[in-house]
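Repro:
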Amino acid sequence: MNFQYNFQKVVDIKSSAKNQAEWILSTALGELQAQEQSLDQLLEDQNRTLEAINQAIEQCAPISELQDMQRYIAYLDQCIAKKISDVHRAQVDVEHKKLHLTEKMVDEKVWLQAKDKAKAKFMQEHMLREQNALDEMATVRFAMQSR
């Protein structure tokens, strides 16, 4: 006699929803990592440009060249500010996805525990039926021997 849980489809759906939430979180983490790497590249580019400006000043470069570099630094500052905002947005998104995953994990756990309880109850009832059948066989055997 095999145990068949009546709500197995629900358990499967909850498990699938948890797996999907894990994938979504993984995607959000990948996006966050990409945004952080992009920010790091912008900061490195800014540092290199600042070093180039310092070298140009030491070498008495033309004013127009220094102005071009300064405009590029201003542009990089704008890009960095936007990228910091993007990184923050990605971090918030990751936190939302983590909460969503936690909800799905709790939901799945509740259904798995309900399934385990139902299986334990089924096994207990099955063992009780078996014991009753054995008791009845012993009673019949005893009654046959008494005659």
